[in-house]
Amino acid sequence: MVKVNACVFISGNGTNLKTIIKNSRDYNFPIKISLVISSSKKAKGITFARKYSIPYIVLNVDKKKFEKVALKELLRRNIKLICLAGFMKILSKDFIRSFKGKIINIHPSLLPKYKGLNTFERILKDKEIMTGCTVHFVNEKLDNGRTIVKKRIWIEKKDDTNSLKKRVQCEEYKAYSMAIRKIYVLN
Ligand code: GRF
């Protein structure tokens, strides 16, 4: 199968990155992770790029420089899909426009509810009974683009932010790869 070259942007633990890398090793998975870009040199996720021998770049710089260098590398490596996975920078409109329809993100809530940070705290405070995660296309507004996949879980009485985060992340690992498959099956 001819795979699409993809890049994953991370800033932290990279557990979604790890799952995507593992799934991408399957012959029938539509993308190959050709590059990992981390906005932080402390990101644990870098260890997964190393472990699986995937080229990675650390760009611990301001947004303008980050985007300039990233863009150059993405074009040089013929990257056709950018997966944001725990990436903490907000990309500029220009950058998003230059990769229109080719940037996707995962967010730990059922969008459009609970955009932004500290989702689990807010969800528990509001006594929601259900939550989940959303994989969506990135547009110029924060956590706003078209949904690709949503996964839902019930919130249990005993849940705190840690347990909820753990359970939502388990759904994220399935949702992200499902979304990637869905994009290329539909195209
Ligand atoms: C995930 O919960 C994702 O929804 C959010 O950031 C977290 C990243 O986790 N955008 P990891 O770095 O993939 O472990």
Give an overview of the whole structure.
It is a single chain. The chain has 187 residues and is an alpha/beta fold. The chain has a single domain (4-186), classed as 3-Layer(aba) Sandwich (Rossmann fold). The mean pLDDT is 96. The protein has helices spanning 15-24, 46-51, 63-76, 93-98, 119-125, 161-186; strands at 4-10, 31-38, 56-58, 81-84, 103-107, 130-137, 147-154. Bound molecules: 5-O-phosphono-beta-D-ribofuranosylamine. 5-O-phosphono-beta-D-ribofuranosylamine binds at residues 10, 12-17, 45, 85-86, 106-108, 133, 169, 172.
Measure the end-to-end span.
15 Å
Structural class: alpha/beta
Strands of the largest sheet, in order across it?
3-2-1-4-5-6-7
Number of domains: 1
Task: Return the CATH topology.
Answer: Rossmann fold
Q: In one word, what is the shape?
A: globular
Total number of helices: 6
- Name the CATH superfamily classification: Formyl transferase, N-terminal domain
| Biggest sheet features | 7 strands, mixed
Question: In the CATH classification, which architecture applies?
Answer: 3-Layer(aba) Sandwich
- The percent range for strand residues is 15-25%
* Mean pLDDT across every amino acid position: 96
Tell me the radius of gyration: 16 Å
